[in-house]
Amino acid sequence: MTIAKIIAKRSASDIIACNVDTPVSQAVAMLAGKKIGALPVLDNGAVAGILSERDVIYRMAEEGASCLNKTVGQIMTSPAVTVEPSTTIDDALALMTRRRFRHFPVIDNGALCAFISIGDLVKSKIDEVEHEAEALRTYIQTG
User: CA-based, 20 to 30 A from 87: which of 43, 64, 97, 98?
Assistant: First the structure.
């Protein structure tokens, strides 16, 4: 199964994102207000990086509250590791595990088309396993 299946019913216009020049304090308010862990960061419409809760926490530990006066572009993780809709879920999970992060911008023909989390991938894997288990139960009962 691929990322395309997960994002099939999503619209790029629903992506919650910020720009490199967004104040960190405003981005933190977005994260808290939407109860999300990360935002794709755009620069002239292209993905420039990702701002995660961890980025903010690490900067606050280093600099204190003054980091809230910086721009997102100054503290984000960049460059962003991205995937394409054709990426398999297993490959995406392996990359997240290896690189120790929890969010991916999905890029299609150079444009941001979705933003997915490890939760999206795990839910998809669970749905797949449950579907396979049901198919096996049906096969055994009718066989």
Answer: 43
